[in-house]
Write a structure and sequence with these properties.
The protein is mostly helical. The protein has one domain. It is 84% helix and 0% strand. The longest helix has 76 residues.
Length: 262
């Protein structure tokens, strides 16, 4: 008899714990969704930079071709300008590289998710940090070139059209190459952000599923509380136990009504 009385109390505690777990998992799912949205915004910024720089590169090359078409232009640099530095190579973990290749090959979402599960969050964050550092390092490495272009432009003699035309051609050639390198770096950063977005969404979906299962467990525990209460009421033939059991049944019926009708 003592165990029968204790059963509703124990199951109530279990139901409360499961309700807390369900709420916690749903909160984490919502957090991951919000994080994914923030990361998607950052990825969008990098894609915008990529598109803008590719467009600028195309404009520089088209302008250079037009300039060469309408007049004779020296194809070699006669101003001793610095060359465009090579785009830095940054470290990417092999697991991250496999995930990038899966996205590039447009594999199914299930296949990409399977590859992403092998990528640790810290490893992906480290690769992204390396890519951003490479991008900032390239910008710093091109500062001497930008300064040389400004300095040379100021030294051009007014009215010397040949020198002005040759300098314009050299600037377009160098600027086009610089924009191409910068665009590739922006593209690399954007792709890594996209992987983080996918991982955040996968984590959110996992927590949502866990919350749903914890919620079902809570309902099962609450049903056990009702059954145990009925058992105690039948055993003790107590009016109060009967009222409590009826109230529990009413709560379940009300929950079903809200779920189906409201």
């Amino acid at each position: 008899m003592h165990g029968l009385i204790v059963t509703p109390v124990v199951m109530t505690v279990v139901a409360t714990l499961l309700a807390g777990l369900a709420s916690s998992e749903m909160t984490r799912a919502q957090y991951d969704r919000a994080l994914g949205a923030q990361l998607q915004s950052k990825a969008g910024d990098q894609w915008n930079y990529f598109q803008a720089k590719k467009l600028r590169s195309s404009m520089q090359r088209n302008s250079l071709e037009l300039l060469q078409a309408i007049g004779e232009v020296n194809s070699k640099d006669t101003f001793n300008l610095p060359t465009v530095p090579a785009a830095p190579v940054f470290a990417v973990d092999p697991s991250v590289q496999l995930a990038l290749q899966a996205v590039e090959k447009q594999q199914t979402e299930e296949e990409i998710a399977g590859v992403l599960k092998t990528v640790a969050d810290g490893v992906l964050a480290s690769s992204l940090r390396s890519a951003r550092e490479a991008m900032l390092g390239f910008e710093k490495a091109t500062e001497p070139l930008n300064q040389a272009l400004e300095r040379t432009e100021k030294l051009l003699l007014p009215g010397d059209r040949t020198a002005a035309r040759d300098f314009a051609a050299s600037r377009m050639r160098l600027s086009g190459a610089r924009y191409d390198s910068e665009a590739r770096l922006n593209q690399s950063v954007a792709n890594l952000y996209e992987l983080q977005v996918r991982k955040a969404n996968l984590s959110a979906e996992r927590h949502r599923r866990r919350s749903s299962k914890f919620f079902l467990g809570m309902l099962s525990a609450q049903a056990a509380v009702i059954i145990a209460t009925f058992a105690v009421a039948a055993q003790k033939r107590s009016f109060l136990w009967t009222v409590a059991a009826i109230a529990g049944i009413a709560d379940i019926g009300f929950a079903i009504y809200v779920y189906l009708q409201v």
